[in-house]
Amino acid sequence: MSLETSESHDPSPEEVRAARAKADAKRADAIAARIDAAKSSPPSASRSWDARDALDACERLFRDHPGSLIRERCRDEIFTPSKGRDDGSSSEHVRDLVYGEFGFMSLAALFRKYSDQIPPRAVVADLGSGVGRPLFAAACLRPDLARCVGVEKLGGLHELAGELGALYDAELAPVLGAEPPRVELHRGDFLHGVEWRGANVVLVNSAIFSDELFEKTEARAAEVLSPGALVVTLRRGFADCGHEGACWELLEATERRQSWGMSTVYVHRRTQNSPRRAGIED
Ligand SMILES: C[S@@+](CC[C@H](N)C(=O)[O-])C[C@H]1O[C@@H](n2cnc3c(N)ncnc32)[C@H](O)[C@@H]1O
């Protein structure tokens, strides 16, 4: 009897690079083919549309962008000094950038529960939007939104978001009606940009944000959002809540499933009160 020996070995960096380049080229071809197909036989607006249709549509949108690709791009940047980080050294900064996504059903529950507080032509923002999945989900769940705006720091994720944005425009937006939500994906630091100023609903997947980033996010949101705006955070809620003169009213804190497991979802509403100055400049 002979023993079988395995020839397998860990791939060299060159082999990894070559395999990636091949996968990127294959994905680019698939995207181009999908956009061409949508152009040559334009999808028509759907007459009836429910949460199940929204979920199916989002899954179809992501069919060339599996979770493994997204995690790979995120890992590339958080373990490469000077990329995506300000100082390239602090583990707190690495922590702020680690990936996980709002669960679709968690967003569906949110948009259903607060539908009367989200007016037609409202703007939804996602702070740290990754590849944009919650924004595409919001557009499908509320096709009457005007805009879904994301801000993401990491270039690799922003690039994938751009690919998905082009697919959304070609394949999905036409199905959502005559005036579908515009999905805008910006690269930058949401603490300093003004892209989300005046948004009606702001999603913050803060499950692993450092205390410093979370506190700055709260202060910035108090500065740039108008009374009535809803802000959704994960794992912890805003501090300036539940007292006279507070900037935020806590509407609920509920456990819901996200891409990695259960997390508490905090929903806050901006009050009329003026914020304390946080010292963050535009
Ligand atoms: C946990 S992921 C969430 C992605 C997306 N919101 C979702 O739920 O699918 C958090 C994202 O926030 C980004 N991020 C962290 N700090 C940021 C900042 N100051 N400005 C922009 N993006 C930031 C990270 O790069 C990461 O992609």
UniProtKB/TrEMBL annotation:
The keyword DNA-binding is annotated on this UniProt entry: no
Keywords, sorted A to Z: Chromatin regulator
Disordered: annotated segments: 1-24
Highest taxon listed in the record's lineage: Eukaryota
Transport in keyword set: no
GO biological process, one term: regulation of cell cycle
Catalytic activity from the UniProt record: L-lysyl(79)-[histone H3] + 3 S-adenosyl-L-methionine = N(6),N(6),N(6)-trimethyl-L-lysyl(79)-[histone H3] + 3 S-adenosyl-L-homocysteine + 3 H(+)
DOT1 domain span: 96-235
Main enzyme class: transferase
Organism of this sequence: Micromonas commoda (strain RCC299 / NOUM17 / CCMP2709) (Picoplanktonic green alga)
Protein name per the record: Histone-lysine N-methyltransferase, H3 lysine-79 specific
Gene Ontology molecular-function annotations: histone H3K79 trimethyltransferase activity
The enzyme's E.C. designation: 2.1.1.360
Pfam families on file: DOT1
CDD domains noted in UniProt: AdoMet_MTases (cd02440)
